[in-house]
Design goal:
It is built from 9 helices and 9 strands. By secondary structure, the chain is of the alpha/beta class. 35% of the residues are buried. GO terms for molecular function: NAD-dependent protein lysine deacetylase activity.
């Protein structure tokens, strides 16, 4: 029996109406009035300008929290899965054991130093007053004029650009799944983030065959790779 590991990116959720990251309408092409997306999605921005950070995060991600899974998510519901997506749609589709390696928009944690595994809470997005967005978010996230306070303020459960993978994001379990796989299938990802590079390196080291599914698949250095130039929906129906 094969042990296939699926590693998914934003392309899987595009059919659910959630923009991909690097397309024309993608999250990384849209910043705030004063900062680029790469500047916004950082721990430093959360620490030093939390109102701007939270308003951007809410507008760019949280407003999609009520979108539903598509056929690709349901197809992946019983699969060994690591997703880069924070939309939570794999859980909504019924996958009970997937790893959301970059976090989830429906969860928050206490603001803490990186490293330890801390408790996650349901995010209080239902309490946000969109007419007074920044003020409301600062109040809900318990952030005073002095900025976020360790172990008091809340922080979105999301891995930011200047943070590192920890077991809060199940990195050890993710690595174990990589090493135990006998095939890896990458769906809807550009291979531009660390987790895909990590998985690809494990595949190279252990001669694990891989498949890449994407309308414009990234070409990678690997001795045993099959490319499928198609969307996630086309792949599951072929």
């Amino acid at each position: 029996m094969t042990n296939t590991l699926y590693v998914t990116g934003a392309g899987v959720s595009s059919a659910s109406g959630i923009p991909t990251f690097r397309g024309e309408d993608g999250f990384w092409t849209i910043g705030s009035n004063n900062y680029t997306p790469q500047e916004m999605a950082t721990r430093a921005m959360y620490q030093h300008n939390p109102a701007e950070f939270l308003a951007w995060y809410y507008t760019r991600f949280v407003t999609y929290r009520n979108h539903g899974p598509n056929k690709a998510h349901y197809w992946l519901a019983d699969k060994n899965l690591i997703t880069q997506n924070i939309d939570g749609l794999d859980g909504k589709a019924g996958n009970q054991h997937y790893i959301s390696i970059h976090g989830r928009i429906d969860h928050v944690t206490r603001y803490h130093e990186q490293g330890p595994v801390v408790e996650r809470f349901n995010a209080p997005w239902q309490d946000v007053d969109e007419q007074n967005l920044k003020t409301s978010l600062l109040d809900i996230f318990k952030i005073s004029k002095h900025g976020p306070e360790l172990n008091v303020s809340l922080k979105p459960y999301v891995l930011l650009f200047d943070e590192f993978y920890t077991d809060l994001y199940q990195i050890t379990e993710a690595q174990n799944r990589m090493y135990n796989a006998d095939k890896m299938v990458f769906i809807g990802t550009s291979f531009s983030v660390n987790i895909t590079q990590m998985a690809l390196e494990v595949a190279r080291q252990n001669a694990i065959p891989i498949e890449i599914v994407d309308p414009n698949p990234a070409h990678v250095l690997h001795s045993d790779v099959t490319y499928h130039q198609m969307t996630a929906l086309e792949y599951i129906e072929k």
